[in-house]
Specification:
Elements lengths: L9 E7 L3 H12 L9 E7 L6 H9 L7 E6 L5 H11 L4 E4 L4 E3 L3 H11 L3 E12 L24 E2 L14 E3 H7 L18 H11 L3 E14 L6 H13 L1 H6 L7 H22 L8 H23 L9
Parallel strand pairs: 1-2, 1-4, 2-3, 6-9
Antiparallel strand pairs: 4-8, 5-9, 6-8, 7-9
Helix pairs in contact: 1-2, 7-10, 9-10
Protein backbone atom coordinates (compact mmCIF):
# COMPACT_ATOMS: atom_id res chain seq x y z
CA UNK A 1 0.00 0.00 0.00
CA UNK A 2 1.30 3.49 -0.88
CA UNK A 3 1.86 5.65 2.19
CA UNK A 4 0.25 9.05 2.43
CA UNK A 5 2.48 12.08 1.92
CA UNK A 6 2.31 13.07 5.60
CA UNK A 7 3.53 9.64 6.73
CA UNK A 8 6.84 9.64 4.84
CA UNK A 9 9.74 11.49 6.45
CA UNK A 10 12.38 11.13 3.75
CA UNK A 11 12.65 10.15 0.09
CA UNK A 12 15.92 8.92 -1.39
CA UNK A 13 15.83 9.75 -5.11
CA UNK A 14 18.18 8.07 -7.58
CA UNK A 15 18.18 9.62 -11.08
CA UNK A 16 19.96 7.22 -13.44
CA UNK A 17 20.74 6.84 -17.10
CA UNK A 18 21.99 3.42 -18.22
CA UNK A 19 22.98 2.74 -14.62
CA UNK A 20 22.25 -0.99 -14.49
CA UNK A 21 25.89 -1.85 -13.75
CA UNK A 22 26.17 0.77 -11.00
CA UNK A 23 22.79 0.63 -9.26
CA UNK A 24 23.39 -2.53 -7.25
CA UNK A 25 26.27 -1.00 -5.31
CA UNK A 26 24.12 1.97 -4.29
CA UNK A 27 21.02 -0.07 -3.43
CA UNK A 28 23.11 -2.36 -1.24
CA UNK A 29 24.41 0.66 0.69
CA UNK A 30 20.86 1.91 1.15
CA UNK A 31 19.73 -1.50 2.33
CA UNK A 32 22.36 -1.38 5.10
CA UNK A 33 21.60 2.11 6.46
CA UNK A 34 21.78 2.33 10.26
CA UNK A 35 20.06 4.41 12.96
CA UNK A 36 16.85 4.55 10.92
CA UNK A 37 14.57 2.93 13.47
CA UNK A 38 11.34 4.90 13.61
CA UNK A 39 12.14 6.74 10.38
CA UNK A 40 9.60 6.34 7.59
CA UNK A 41 11.47 6.52 4.30
CA UNK A 42 11.27 5.41 0.69
CA UNK A 43 13.51 5.02 -2.36
CA UNK A 44 12.62 6.14 -5.88
CA UNK A 45 14.72 5.17 -8.89
CA UNK A 46 14.06 7.56 -11.79
CA UNK A 47 15.08 5.90 -15.03
CA UNK A 48 15.97 8.78 -17.37
CA UNK A 49 15.23 7.01 -20.67
CA UNK A 50 17.81 4.24 -20.27
CA UNK A 51 18.43 1.71 -23.01
CA UNK A 52 19.97 -0.95 -20.73
CA UNK A 53 18.32 -3.25 -18.17
CA UNK A 54 17.99 -0.67 -15.38
CA UNK A 55 14.31 -1.51 -14.91
CA UNK A 56 15.08 -5.21 -14.44
CA UNK A 57 17.70 -4.44 -11.77
CA UNK A 58 15.15 -2.45 -9.78
CA UNK A 59 12.53 -5.18 -10.19
CA UNK A 60 14.95 -7.76 -8.80
CA UNK A 61 15.60 -5.64 -5.72
CA UNK A 62 11.89 -4.97 -5.23
CA UNK A 63 11.34 -8.72 -4.74
CA UNK A 64 13.57 -8.78 -1.67
CA UNK A 65 13.65 -5.20 -0.39
CA UNK A 66 13.53 -3.82 3.14
CA UNK A 67 10.34 -4.47 5.05
CA UNK A 68 8.36 -1.26 5.58
CA UNK A 69 10.47 0.70 3.07
CA UNK A 70 9.05 1.20 -0.40
CA UNK A 71 11.34 0.89 -3.42
CA UNK A 72 9.67 2.52 -6.41
CA UNK A 73 10.60 2.76 -10.08
CA UNK A 74 9.47 5.46 -12.49
CA UNK A 75 10.44 6.18 -16.07
CA UNK A 76 11.20 9.74 -17.18
CA UNK A 77 11.35 9.84 -21.01
CA UNK A 78 12.60 13.43 -21.36
CA UNK A 79 16.37 13.22 -21.42
CA UNK A 80 18.31 15.34 -18.98
CA UNK A 81 19.23 15.18 -15.30
CA UNK A 82 17.12 18.26 -14.54
CA UNK A 83 14.02 16.44 -15.80
CA UNK A 84 14.86 13.33 -13.78
CA UNK A 85 15.29 15.35 -10.58
CA UNK A 86 12.08 17.28 -11.19
CA UNK A 87 10.23 14.00 -11.71
CA UNK A 88 11.75 12.64 -8.50
CA UNK A 89 10.55 15.60 -6.44
CA UNK A 90 7.10 15.39 -8.00
CA UNK A 91 6.82 11.66 -7.28
CA UNK A 92 8.35 11.87 -3.79
CA UNK A 93 6.17 11.45 -0.73
CA UNK A 94 8.76 12.60 1.81
CA UNK A 95 9.19 16.01 3.40
CA UNK A 96 12.85 15.85 2.37
CA UNK A 97 14.27 14.50 -0.89
CA UNK A 98 17.87 13.30 -0.92
CA UNK A 99 19.51 12.87 -4.33
CA UNK A 100 22.08 10.14 -4.84
CA UNK A 101 23.68 9.37 -8.20
CA UNK A 102 24.05 5.74 -9.19
CA UNK A 103 27.84 5.97 -8.67
CA UNK A 104 27.44 7.31 -5.10
CA UNK A 105 27.99 5.10 -2.07
CA UNK A 106 26.51 6.66 1.10
CA UNK A 107 28.03 5.89 4.49
CA UNK A 108 25.82 3.78 6.81
CA UNK A 109 24.66 6.86 8.76
CA UNK A 110 24.00 9.07 5.74
CA UNK A 111 20.22 8.77 5.77
CA UNK A 112 19.87 9.27 9.53
CA UNK A 113 22.21 12.28 9.45
CA UNK A 114 20.36 13.78 6.47
CA UNK A 115 16.96 13.53 8.14
CA UNK A 116 18.23 14.79 11.49
CA UNK A 117 19.82 17.90 9.96
CA UNK A 118 16.72 18.89 7.99
CA UNK A 119 14.40 18.25 10.91
CA UNK A 120 16.48 20.44 13.22
CA UNK A 121 17.08 23.31 10.76
CA UNK A 122 13.64 24.53 9.59
CA UNK A 123 15.17 27.58 7.86
CA UNK A 124 17.26 25.39 5.53
CA UNK A 125 15.91 24.70 2.05
CA UNK A 126 18.77 22.48 0.87
CA UNK A 127 21.99 21.02 2.22
CA UNK A 128 24.89 19.10 0.76
CA UNK A 129 26.98 16.12 1.78
CA UNK A 130 30.65 15.62 2.43
CA UNK A 131 31.66 13.82 -0.77
CA UNK A 132 34.91 11.86 -0.91
CA UNK A 133 36.40 10.23 -3.99
CA UNK A 134 36.99 6.54 -4.56
CA UNK A 135 39.34 6.46 -7.56
CA UNK A 136 39.89 3.59 -9.96
CA UNK A 137 43.29 5.09 -10.80
CA UNK A 138 45.36 7.73 -9.07
CA UNK A 139 44.22 11.25 -10.03
CA UNK A 140 46.61 13.69 -11.74
CA UNK A 141 48.96 15.92 -9.79
CA UNK A 142 47.23 18.92 -8.14
CA UNK A 143 43.86 17.29 -8.79
CA UNK A 144 42.46 18.88 -5.62
CA UNK A 145 42.23 22.20 -7.51
CA UNK A 146 39.54 20.83 -9.84
CA UNK A 147 38.08 18.11 -7.58
CA UNK A 148 34.91 20.14 -6.82
CA UNK A 149 34.08 20.03 -10.54
CA UNK A 150 33.58 16.26 -10.15
CA UNK A 151 31.24 16.85 -7.18
CA UNK A 152 33.93 16.07 -4.60
CA UNK A 153 33.25 18.32 -1.62
CA UNK A 154 35.10 18.31 1.69
CA UNK A 155 34.60 21.59 3.53
CA UNK A 156 35.74 20.31 6.90
CA UNK A 157 34.17 18.60 9.89
CA UNK A 158 31.83 21.43 10.93
CA UNK A 159 28.53 22.46 9.29
CA UNK A 160 28.92 25.51 7.07
CA UNK A 161 26.47 28.02 5.70
CA UNK A 162 26.70 28.82 1.98
CA UNK A 163 26.65 32.60 2.01
CA UNK A 164 24.78 33.94 -1.06
CA UNK A 165 27.37 36.60 -1.85
CA UNK A 166 30.12 33.99 -2.27
CA UNK A 167 28.35 32.32 -5.23
CA UNK A 168 29.25 28.85 -3.96
CA UNK A 169 26.72 26.01 -3.68
CA UNK A 170 26.83 22.22 -3.11
CA UNK A 171 26.76 19.72 -5.98
CA UNK A 172 23.69 17.67 -6.84
CA UNK A 173 25.24 14.38 -5.69
CA UNK A 174 24.38 13.87 -2.03
CA UNK A 175 22.14 16.94 -2.03
CA UNK A 176 19.02 17.03 0.16
CA UNK A 177 16.20 19.49 -0.56
CA UNK A 178 13.11 20.42 1.36
CA UNK A 179 10.38 19.28 -1.00
CA UNK A 180 8.17 22.26 -0.16
CA UNK A 181 10.94 24.71 -1.11
CA UNK A 182 11.70 22.96 -4.40
CA UNK A 183 8.07 22.70 -5.54
CA UNK A 184 7.35 26.32 -4.70
CA UNK A 185 10.52 27.95 -6.03
CA UNK A 186 12.10 25.81 -8.77
CA UNK A 187 10.54 26.10 -12.26
CA UNK A 188 9.21 22.88 -13.73
CA UNK A 189 11.57 23.39 -16.70
CA UNK A 190 15.05 24.73 -16.09
CA UNK A 191 17.23 26.29 -18.78
CA UNK A 192 20.12 24.01 -17.81
CA UNK A 193 18.89 20.45 -18.26
CA UNK A 194 22.12 18.44 -17.97
CA UNK A 195 24.51 16.67 -20.30
CA UNK A 196 22.38 15.49 -23.20
CA UNK A 197 23.35 14.32 -26.67
CA UNK A 198 27.07 14.83 -26.18
CA UNK A 199 26.62 18.36 -24.88
CA UNK A 200 28.49 18.76 -21.57
CA UNK A 201 26.54 21.86 -20.50
CA UNK A 202 26.22 21.39 -16.75
CA UNK A 203 25.26 23.17 -13.47
CA UNK A 204 21.56 22.21 -13.55
CA UNK A 205 21.60 21.68 -9.76
CA UNK A 206 23.23 25.11 -9.32
CA UNK A 207 20.36 26.72 -11.22
CA UNK A 208 17.74 24.94 -9.08
CA UNK A 209 19.52 25.85 -5.84
CA UNK A 210 19.77 29.50 -6.85
CA UNK A 211 15.98 29.69 -7.12
CA UNK A 212 15.69 28.25 -3.62
CA UNK A 213 18.38 30.51 -2.20
CA UNK A 214 17.03 33.64 -3.90
CA UNK A 215 13.66 32.95 -2.26
CA UNK A 216 15.25 33.30 1.18
CA UNK A 217 15.94 29.69 2.10
CA UNK A 218 19.33 28.92 3.62
CA UNK A 219 21.67 26.35 2.05
CA UNK A 220 24.21 24.45 4.16
CA UNK A 221 26.99 21.88 4.10
CA UNK A 222 26.51 18.98 6.52
CA UNK A 223 29.71 16.94 7.10
CA UNK A 224 27.79 14.22 8.96
CA UNK A 225 26.32 13.15 5.61
CA UNK A 226 29.26 11.28 4.07
CA UNK A 227 29.07 9.99 0.49
CA UNK A 228 31.78 8.20 -1.47
CA UNK A 229 31.82 9.01 -5.17
CA UNK A 230 33.20 6.30 -7.46
CA UNK A 231 35.46 7.91 -10.09
CA UNK A 232 36.32 5.54 -12.97
CA UNK A 233 39.46 5.83 -15.04
CA UNK A 234 37.79 7.59 -17.98
CA UNK A 235 36.61 10.49 -15.82
CA UNK A 236 40.23 11.35 -15.07
CA UNK A 237 41.29 11.36 -18.70
CA UNK A 238 42.00 14.59 -20.52
CA UNK A 239 39.05 14.46 -22.95
CA UNK A 240 36.46 14.01 -20.22
CA UNK A 241 37.92 16.60 -17.84
CA UNK A 242 38.30 19.23 -20.56
CA UNK A 243 34.73 18.64 -21.72
CA UNK A 244 33.48 18.87 -18.15
CA UNK A 245 35.26 22.19 -17.57
CA UNK A 246 33.97 23.50 -20.88
CA UNK A 247 30.38 22.61 -20.01
CA UNK A 248 30.55 24.14 -16.54
CA UNK A 249 32.12 27.30 -17.92
CA UNK A 250 29.54 27.69 -20.68
CA UNK A 251 26.73 27.51 -18.11
CA UNK A 252 28.15 30.36 -16.02
CA UNK A 253 26.42 33.25 -17.76
CA UNK A 254 22.99 31.90 -16.93
CA UNK A 255 23.75 31.02 -13.30
CA UNK A 256 25.52 34.33 -12.72
CA UNK A 257 22.60 36.38 -14.01
CA UNK A 258 19.93 34.55 -12.00
CA UNK A 259 20.85 36.58 -8.90
CA UNK A 260 21.19 39.91 -10.72
CA UNK A 261 18.37 42.43 -11.15
CA UNK A 262 17.43 43.10 -14.79
CA UNK A 263 18.65 46.69 -14.74
CA UNK A 264 22.04 45.61 -13.34
CA UNK A 265 22.73 42.88 -15.87
CA UNK A 266 24.62 44.95 -18.49
CA UNK A 267 27.06 46.25 -15.88
CA UNK A 268 27.34 42.83 -14.22
CA UNK A 269 28.14 41.26 -17.59
CA UNK A 270 31.01 43.70 -18.15
CA UNK A 271 32.37 43.13 -14.64
CA UNK A 272 32.22 39.34 -14.99
CA UNK A 273 33.90 39.39 -18.42
CA UNK A 274 36.69 41.63 -17.20
CA UNK A 275 37.24 39.32 -14.26
CA UNK A 276 37.31 36.30 -16.57
CA UNK A 277 39.91 38.05 -18.75
CA UNK A 278 41.99 38.82 -15.67
CA UNK A 279 41.92 35.15 -14.64
CA UNK A 280 42.93 34.02 -18.13
CA UNK A 281 45.87 36.42 -18.36
CA UNK A 282 47.08 35.60 -14.85
CA UNK A 283 46.77 31.87 -15.55
CA UNK A 284 48.67 32.09 -18.84
CA UNK A 285 51.48 34.02 -17.18
CA UNK A 286 51.73 31.53 -14.32
CA UNK A 287 51.57 28.36 -16.44
CA UNK A 288 52.87 29.59 -19.81
CA UNK A 289 55.58 26.89 -19.98
CA UNK A 290 53.53 23.99 -18.67
CA UNK A 291 49.99 24.52 -19.92
CA UNK A 292 50.28 21.67 -22.44
CA UNK A 293 51.78 19.15 -20.03
CA UNK A 294 49.90 20.11 -16.86
CA UNK A 295 46.40 18.61 -17.15
CA UNK A 296 44.95 20.47 -14.18
CA UNK A 297 46.26 23.83 -15.42
CA UNK A 298 44.85 23.09 -18.88
CA UNK A 299 41.45 22.28 -17.35
CA UNK A 300 41.43 25.50 -15.35
CA UNK A 301 42.25 27.50 -18.48
CA UNK A 302 39.42 25.77 -20.37
CA UNK A 303 37.04 26.69 -17.54
CA UNK A 304 38.07 30.37 -17.61
CA UNK A 305 37.89 30.56 -21.42
CA UNK A 306 34.45 28.94 -21.42
CA UNK A 307 33.21 31.36 -18.76
CA UNK A 308 34.26 34.21 -21.04
CA UNK A 309 32.48 32.61 -24.01
CA UNK A 310 29.36 31.79 -22.00
CA UNK A 311 27.27 34.91 -22.81
CA UNK A 312 27.81 34.46 -26.56
CA UNK A 313 27.03 30.75 -26.30
CA UNK A 314 23.72 31.45 -24.60
CA UNK A 315 22.69 34.22 -26.95
CA UNK A 316 23.43 32.02 -29.97
CA UNK A 317 22.49 28.51 -28.81
CA UNK A 318 19.97 28.77 -25.98
CA UNK A 319 18.00 32.00 -25.79
CA UNK A 320 17.37 32.12 -29.57
CA UNK A 321 15.69 28.70 -29.53
CA UNK A 322 11.91 28.70 -29.98
CA UNK A 323 10.17 28.73 -26.61
CA UNK A 324 8.56 25.33 -27.15
CA UNK A 325 11.95 23.63 -27.50
CA UNK A 326 13.14 24.78 -24.10
Amino acid sequence: MTKSLSMVDFTVAIPTYNGAQRLSGLLEKLRSQTQVEGLCWEVIVVDNNSSDHTAEVVQQYQQNWLEGVELRYCFEPEQGLAFARQRAVTEAQGKFVGFLDDDNRPAPEWLAAAHHFGKNHPQVGAYGSRILGEFEVHPPENFERIAPLLALTDRGSEPRYYEPQKKLLPPGAGLVVRRQAWLKQVPARLVLIGRVGGQMLASEEFEALLYIQNAGWQIWYNPEMVVYHCIPRQRLERAYLMGLCRGIGLSRYHTRMLSVAAWQKPLALVVYMLNDLRKIVRHLIKYRTSIKSDLVAACELELYLSCLKSPFFFWRSVFRQPLQTR
